[in-house]
Amino acid sequence: MKIRTQLQLLILFMVLVPLLCALSFPVYQFITSPQRYLMAGYKEIRKLEGLDISTDDLDLLGVQLKKIPSNIETMVYYNSTVLISSIPDIKAGTVMTPMDLFDFLRLSSGSYNYQLQSLGMRPTRRLEESVLNPLSILIICRAKMPKPRMDKDVRKWGGRFLIFPAMVAFVIFEIVCAIFLINLSKTISDSITILEETTQKIALGALDTKIAPPKGRNANEITSLAESLEKMRVSLQDWQDRRTKFIMGISHDLRTPVALIKGYTEAITDGVVTDIDKVKGSLSIIHTKADQLEGMINDLINYVKLNNTDWLQTLEFVELKPILVEFTGTAAATAEAYKRNIRVRIELQPETQVKMDKNLFNRALENIYSNALRYTRDGDSIAVEAVETEKAISIKISDTGIGIGEKDLKRIWDIFYRGTNSRREGGMGIGLSVVRTIIDTHGWNIDVQSTLGEGTAFTITIPKNTEPVPKVGRF
């Protein structure tokens, strides 16, 4: 439920409850009013067929009934029949002779004051003065005689007893409304309080503080906002962890060549190495490590640039088959130099185009292929396959090398991570992380399957008509 709706409900109930309380007593009096039953009976009379009463008399009867106060008990008598009655002792439809009517009035006259009126004649309280023509309409009204003062409290409590059910009903209604309003306001205040407390902790650097607002049917925009902030917190925490690992990885991998350069330089400067051949050998090592260091720095710079997705604005549609043909031609020459067997199968339509950065795509393929060369032995096989369906293009690079262990397979995409079989090799552990970043940012998918001792297969799936999606903060 939205906050606006919740506040509107709150205002509505604040206005509605007092209004209902103010209207409750008039409504109750109307519902219990004898006049209501009189007018209902009057309407029923007008619907009767064969009743020997003129329309004018019926209209006059309706006018007279409306004039009768609501606390007066009334009955309408015509042609020895009670047509309408709000007197509890006599029901509508009762057949009474004039003598029976007189007897009833006489016996109850000790408790009630009676007033009789024939339509068109003035009212009278004396029965003998009334004109009781069997074909005239007689309106009989009665009211209780005032009781002695000693019964004042009894009458007062009797009146209160009549309105007691209504009072109980409205008290219960008000309690229910109060509970609803309290719960509504608590939901809003709890959401705001939790959001405020957790965001303050996060602002102070406690990124492990989870934002977990109350959920359920009373969820509102604040709850949705808190869920979005929780996703941002998780992403920020993950980015911070990656950044920490990134810095630690850089420090670790750059320390080795720097230490060697520093050591050989000090040895030459301090005169530890004086032989000209040894000096040349030391300088050669320094040059090699400097080249290695330069290569690492370039890899890092390229990786950071890759995470800046401005390059997505320069993507263009290119034909995929010529790119793969060129790549596999170079791969075949490299495989021959490394004494590897290579198998190529490209089944793509010549006109098939993919929106991409050609250089980055080639870099991803080269990184995967370099790993295949590095972790295979002389005589092993490497296969490059590309097939096309109606929905996607699949590019697979597989080998029959040493494979990847199950525990390493889950982390091969992490930057600076080098598996058990790769720790003896050179490199910083950036290659596959670069591949994953390129593939993800293009909006494609990559999957790896490997069995230790049998080989590894990387499969790139390019959905057709898929726009690249910016993905930042990978390190």
How would you describe what is shown here?
The chain is of the alpha+beta class and 475 residues long. Helices cover 53% and strands 15% of the residues. It has helices at 3-31, 34-47, 55-67, 98-108, 152-203, 221-269, 276-307, 320-337, 358-374, 406-409, 431-442, and strands spanning 73-78, 81-85, 112-118, 137-144, 316-319, 341-347, 353-356, 381-388, 392-399, 445-451, 455-463. The strands form three sheets. Strands 6-8-9-11-10 form a five-stranded mixed β-sheet, covered by helices on one side. Helix 5 runs parallel beside helix 6. The model is unreliable at 127-132, 150-161 and 422-426 (pLDDT under 50).
Question: What secondary-structure arrangement, pairings included, does this model have?
Answer:
Layout (H helix, E strand, L loop, with lengths): L2 H29 L2 H14 L7 H13 L5 E6 L2 E5 L12 H11 L3 E7 L18 E8 L7 H52 L17 H49 L6 H32 L8 E4 H18 L3 E7 L5 E4 L1 H17 L6 E8 L3 E8 L6 H4 L21 H12 L2 E7 L3 E9 L12
Parallel strand pairs: 6-8
Antiparallel strand pairs: 1-2, 1-4, 3-4, 5-7, 8-9, 9-11, 10-11
Helix pairs in contact: 1-5, 2-3, 5-6, 6-7, 8-9, 9-11
